[in-house]
Amino acid sequence: LVFLIFNKMENSSEIVSFVLTAYGNVGDLKYLYFVIILFWYLFICVANTVLIVVIRVDRRLHEPMYILLCNLCVNEINISTSLYPLLLSQMFSDSHEVTLPWCFLQMCCMYTSAPAEFCSLAAMAYDRYISVCHPLHYNVIMNTERVFFMILLVWIYSFLSVILSFSFIFSLKFCGNNIENVYCDHQFLIGLSCSLSVHSFIADIFFVFVSIFIPFNLISVSYVKILAICRKTSTENKQKAVTTCTPQIVSVSNLFVGCIFQSIDSSVIVAQLPHETVATDPQSSCGLQLNSSRYNKAFEYIPLGIFWAL
Questions:
Q1: What Rg, from alpha-carbon coordinates, does the chain have?
Q2: Residue 273, C-beta contacts closer than 8 angstroms, at least 6 positions apart
């Protein structure tokens, strides 16, 4: 499918590469920036990889919640890898050119991370809902095979969301090749097309709806049902439920609002952005705080996990 899309893209446009014009001339400071960005990228990859290895080697962490947490770590590596390697390679380039296939591949990888993040969080909220509201059936419903099947569905859904939302871009004819950004973004690509259509607006609305609104509503419903069940229990359980759920609800809401504002900002004022654009990790810019004892438990096992991994 990807090959057919790239083939259609190359046949529909005479543009063979784009120029990322947001890279300014910073002189010798580029070496400092390179080291800082490289260190940050390696830190993200190592931290998430260590957590995945710890959960893999420690059988006490072979639970649905930690398996889903591994999927979040994989997604974090995905979004970072789709941004930082190209950013690092372009810092020492004089032309700052990127070919069409790589540009679209980067765009697809970056946009896939948004629905993957929210769908993974929705799966985790569903896990908590089953654990609290149907504890006797938890082991039957949330078995290992079903959890991995949920993860597979998360990535299939995320990939299809991007393809269905932005496939029209692959047939556009471009009248220019200068992207005023440090990475490929669909709004900038649409701005370079020879003719604008209503497809762009519809695609943005559709993508935000399927990748953010639907998973966020599922998360909200799960936590509302959890709190409703806990209201009927003792005061101690009520306090425990509020203490556990409130930070997660606030964090997910913060991520939701951040992504919505980022979508609005990129679509409304993209043409007004200055050349000196600051590169940020879209996922990290609206970071999620996972304040739960279940996550802290995983970090407590990190030294032991590293020992067994070595």
A1: 21
A2: 180, 181
Bridge partner list, 98: 18
Identify any residues that bridge with 20 across adjacent strands, giving them in sequence order.
179
DSSP assignment string, 129-152: HHHHH-GGGHHHHT-HHHHHHHHH
Q: What is the CATH number of the domain that holds 7?
A: 1.20.1070.10
Give the domain range for residue 303.
2-309
pTM above 0.70, yes or no: yes
Q: What's the full length of the chain, in residues? A: 310
- Nearest alpha-carbon partner for 287 in 42, 54, 79: 79
Measuring CA to CA, how many Å separate 29 from each of 24, 33, 35, 36, 42? 11, 6, 10, 11, 20
Number of domains forming the structure of the chain: 1
**Short-list 24, 23, 25, 17, CA closest to 189:** 17
* CA geometry: angle 220, 223, 229, nearest 5 deg: 140
- pLDDT per position in the chain (310 positions), as tens? 555 444 555 544 567 778 887 777 767 788 888 899 999 999 999 999 999 999 999 888 888 889 999 999 999 999 899 889 888 888 877 777 888 778 888 888 888 988 998 999 899 889 888 888 888 888 899 998 999 999 999 999 999 998 888 877 777 777 888 888 888 887 788 778 777 667 777 888 888 889 888 998 898 888 888 888 877 777 766 676 666 677 677 777 777 777 766 666 555 544 444 444 444 444 443 333 343 444 444 444 444 444 334 3
